Amino acid sequence: EELNLALNMFSADGLQTLASAAAASGALSNLTWLGLAANRFGASGAATLAGALAQEATPQLQYLDLGTTALGYEGIDALAPAIISPGLSALRELHFDSNNIGDSGVQEFAALTGQPGALPSLEVLVFSANNLRATGLGALANATLRGGLPKLTRLFFSANRVGYSPSFAPAAGPLRLGGLRNLVFLSLTANKIDDARLAEIADVMADGALSHLTDLYLPSNLIGSEGLAALGRAAERGALPHLKTLSLKSNLIGDDGLVSFARSVSNGRCPSCALYRLHVLHLSFNSITDVGVDALAEAIRGGALPWLHLLVVDRVTPSLKEVCRLRPDLDCSDPLPMPCRDLPEDKREACAQHEI
User: Fold this and answer.
1) Would the pTM count as exceeding 0.70?
2) What's the pLDDT score for residue 30?
3) Are strands 2-4 and 33-35 parallel, antiparallel or unpaired?
């Protein structure tokens, strides 16, 4: 059974009344899907919810959406009894987006998942738009490295602050992602990731992190030529061997980065070549001219990216058109409408959520 109570303006008191009535009637025992997004009940409401969940009122619950409910760090602490209880043992998808949880909240959540029996079935975790830095992402990685969240395969971390900034870069330390070994999907859309941060991520991936990843989303960041070149070099070293989708739209890449990337994916003989399994590559809105597009087209003509089915660039040059004619399975598309980075500040977060 499904219950969607999103956008109902429930307060903590309202949620208490609802939870009491539902628990008394046993109406939640068959519930598999619960949507509570955009209700603003805060940490007090989270404590009420945790009480019901910890008592195993919803033993079959598989989906829980707590996005935009004003949780904050305190909300994660209030949910602790539920997170570590058998009451959520069947939960497969959990949304915490847009709650201003912060790194301390994610660190608290990560610590809870390290306890025996905590969220053993969770596959999808959404922490987008929570003012999170690399520290928060690293905390999740460390938790999985210690055995927490054993089935986590999809992580949404969009609209945060994983990229460097003067206020936290010296204290943040290296970004450790080795624990996220089971991930197949990772979204870091709109995270202010620059060349330095992407180079660091690329080095970690070249050492074997995220080796099962099939989908990597990096749109609307600050990635330039050096960042894409670093990603290409990491792929040459064996990074991302199973990657099928790579989205880099709305960055700052330019021709030099794409030329270097094309060189990297051209090296080696397939199937041992870089990004051999890549199906989809988004490069639109990156100030890439015919020079960069033609370099990639020449690489594809020479046998690089043999499984590529969709390439989205700012301009389909005559050289690329010819490659697409020779490869009927390859769709070379013009870009979609305005990217998130070019929108007004108050609209970027919603756009980033849509972009994944």
Assistant:
1) yes
2) 83
3) parallel
